[in-house]
Amino acid sequence: VILVGAGPGDPELLTIKAAKAIQTADVVVYDRLVAPAIVDLAPPHAERLFVGKTRSLHSVPQDDIHALLIDRAARGLTVVRLKGGDPFIFGRGGEEVDAVEAAGFSVSVIPGVTAAIGGAAASLLPLTHRDHASAVTFVAGQCKGLSEQDWTGLSAPGRTLVVYMGVQDAGAIADKLMAEGRAPTTPVAVLENATRPDQRTIPATLKTLSSVMIRQAVASPALLVIGEAAALAHAPIPHRSPAFAE
Ligand code: SAH
Asked: What whole-number distance in Å separates Cα of residue 160 and Cα of residue 118?
């Protein structure tokens, strides 16, 4: 079983190693955020299994995904588990490694460009910068519940905080950070559909974030980039190769 990071959206952000692995697949198990052009790299004979959330928001339970990976591995097939971004950044890759290893099969991981890295590049937003940010933190806005996340110290002057899965609770997150002393004028950049043709980069501040998100009707997938560096974000310029045009 090979866990493969598919990158944040633009199919050209796939690594060469990832593309080669997909071309050897007998089975491809993929999520909603994986570009169709990437799944299409699999050989014609490969079984394609979609396990992401559908519009009705039903997704395949994680245990069923583990069972699927193990079942196909047990048949001697090369299984490529394609995940959006990087498998080990909020991708439950660690759980899948454990499950496959516990069943006695070998597993390897090919990294991908995580949404924060892809989105920052597309918006010319340097996550670290000698003049603005000497640290960057990736945090889940909604992993096992906002209240369980300790926000203390995650955001401070001279640091960049990138919130994944934070659309729903953006206002509450901004309130918590301001309650902990972050200035209401702290810049925020909202990166929606980063590296995709429909990407948007929307500027805000901690104080305006909630109203900006509503006014602009920001929808998932999106990232909140919080800190002085976020003020450097530009409107993204799409760059896509005709070879991958969809
Ligand atoms: N493993 C993935 C993250 C999965 S969690 C990675 O490394 O990128 C899903 C969250 O990732 C989304 O809620 C959103 O916050 C973020 N995300 C994924 N793709 C994105 C994109 N193209 N633009 C903005 N955010 C994205």
From this structure: 15
How remote is the CA of residue 138 from the centroid of ligand 1, in Å?
Answer: 11
pLDDT tens-digit profile of 186-219?
A: 999 999 999 999 999 999 999 999 999 999 999 9
Angle between helices 93-102 and 62-74 (to 10 degrees): 40
In this structure, which amino acid lies at residue 19? A
Please say if 53 is a catalytic residue: yes
Range with the lowest mean pLDDT among 73-82, 93-102, 113-122, 142-151?
142-151
**pTM (predicted TM-score):** 0.94
Q: Count Cα atoms within 13 angstroms, Cβ side, for 166.
A: 28
Rounded Cα distance between 121 and 125, Å, is 6
Q: Active site residue: 17, 20, 53, 131, which one?
A: 53
Contact indicator for 33, 137 with CB cutoff of 8 Å: no
In tens, the pLDDT along 133-168 reads 999 999 999 755 556 678 888 889 999 999 999 999
Q: Are 4 and 80 in contact (CB under 8 A)?
A: yes
Q: Is 31 a catalytic residue?
A: yes
- Please give the structure tokens belonging to residue 49: 């299994």
Q: Which atom of ligand 1 is nearest to the CA of 93?
A: 1
30 lines ligand 1 (CB under 6 A): no
Q: Is the CB of 9 under 6 A from ligand 1?
A: yes
